[in-house]
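Hi L., both proteins are below.
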Amino acid sequence: MSRKLLSIMGFITITFLVGCSSPELKVPLEDFGMVGVLAFDYIDEDTTKLTVAIPQFMPDVEQNTQIFTVHTDLVSDGILEVEKLSDKKIVLNQLRVVLINEEYARKGDVQRIIKHLYRSAEVGNKVYLAIVKDSGEDILKGDYPDKPNIDFYLNDLLQPSINTAFNPNTNIHDFIYTLTNPVLDPIIPVLAKKDDKVEIKGVALFKDKNMYDMITPEEALVIQALQGKKELSPLPLELNQNNTKDKILLDLIQSKVKMKSNKDLQSPKLAISLKIKGTLSEYKGKRENNLDTPDKLSQLEHDIDKQLEQEIQQFIEKTQKLEIDPIGLSENFRMYYKGKWNNELTDKVVRKLEVDIHVETSIISTGTLK
């Protein structure tokens, strides 16, 4: 037998014996504290309040969720401080939701927190993110009598559904993708506590690492429509066309969008065509008893078209003033650009962009109005 082969066999034997001699560390499952929600509240530029929610699955516990709050400057140090308060090993494998309060989103380094979690081997990419109007700690410590525990409640609230189709349902992967994408800025849903419930109040617009502004669900619906989402949440509209103050609600909406740019970075122009069809489920106005003819319904569709064109135009102008591109309109110019695209080129397009918007509405049913 060759000396080389003997050396290899000896190394394997030693490794095996050392492995056998080391005691195997086993931690019982009940000794783990599996964090379901993390909440970050702003204190100052050097200190963050970290609150964790840990579900309790033992049948004899008095509270179904343990809540711990510590002050820290780093996420990992905060987790260690929580371990000192808890009687369990804190792990993030079952993390579902991360809450960041609005003050932290505007003043703190949000991307540092999210990047830390994104790089952690324990944390999955489908952890939902949300901004909270006041305090994340208050939301976690709130009393919700008809809910089993806070982590399941918030996770279910942030799940995609037809009634919250305006909600971007942003997870950690989505945020990192948009943060590193030069033609798209991050958006995150905003939550607020009202009595014994938590509600989605709007969507936060981000630029780089900080929150710039908050938009309404109706404005957020524009983002979803122009990004090509085919099924939209119910759309309430107040028509200001032809000296009327009609109020309507379109439901079961299907949409289709097309965009065409002039490919010119010096004088960028973009034509947007949006087709929507849905059911007129509610109507309040002078035409309430006069929508039973094709001509009257066609006039209503025309007024909806004009109202939507006006509101979409106003929203795009709003994002231009903020120099934010949450829709990804600059992508229609990047795809024709020869060279490496960067954030400066996106800002240039957003500032100068002229948009021509055409909306075509089809009311396929008047629901229970007839």
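That was the first. Here is the second:
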Amino acid sequence: MASQTSGQFMLNDEQQAIRAAVREFGEAEIEPVASEYDESHEYPWDVVEKAAAADLVGPFIPAKYGGAGMDVLETAIVTEELWRADPGIGAAIDLMAFNSTLYVMNNYATEEQKEEWFSGIAAGQKSIAIGISEAAHGSDVASIETRAERNGDEYVVNGEKMWISNGSIANAVLLVCKTDPGARYDGISTILVPLDADGVTTSKIDNKLGLHASDTAEIVFDDVRVPAENLVGEENRGWQYFNEAMAPARVQVAAQALGAAQGALDAAIDYAQEREQFGQKIGEFQAIRHKIAEMATNVEAARSLTYRAAGLYDAGEIELSERFASIAKLFASDRGFEVADEAVQVFGGAGYVTDHPVERYLRDVRVTKIYEGTNEIQKEIIGNRLLGL
């Protein structure tokens, strides 16, 4: 956990070493191929394998299962640096299993389930997608229609999920589904569904604005039979489990936006020190200096909020961390998009084409305002918590 001095969060030597190691990995293994994967829309399996060898896949996984056993703050640092190198490949690596999935599994899966999946994820050989959103139900999770009906020692699953990260390359999905259709949140369960099971159809969504190197899919379940032992935790308590996992998951999204913003800022600074107009470096013009100053201020503010939310969670201040995770996700994603947009402006026309990475940061960071709870939902959460509603 980060130490606290007068409200400031200071990284210790181990956490600084984590940042340095991931930055070195990003600069050596991700940045040189980022443009290639963005253009090809191919999944970067070779980079994911290298990341796994460096303990960067599923760092939240306990060491006993082959993971790095990192806390939420350390995991956020990893995510931030991966996205600084390139959001698309960064997403491919850090979404092998989303933090919410790992949290639910670690706290409610059986020992057999954890042994089966965690070591494979940490090794970069397996992936578990999280299946919440549907075409007609995004923010309104209580109205999801995908059902799992108990039939003897099996569940029969029917429905479809939309916008599923890693949906077409994962080995299984931790499916959030209705086991009591008459109830709302109290009728939701979490079930591990292998994606090679009979009746499962996955369709890659390839016409995305950004994150071209990461995988997104639609998944259809047609009378899919799943052993009842694949239930994670207790029946009809699935949404409670995910509510508990929202803080680390939203910290992860805040860290994603933060990393993309830092990458865009770094590129803008470098360009401002190289590009000449009217006989001088453009960084010498007050308009550009002030623009970069505002960008840097937003990045540092986003980092402080992200680290604070993570530090609160790691310190056991769960209720407070939930509010700050929403604040961090809201601020980092909003300001991250603004920073990337301003980076394009610093580059001018050169920033509007794929010759430079800033247009990619702009496209890629945009989704952080949408997933893991839209920013409109985050405002509702923050306001309700402050007003006791």
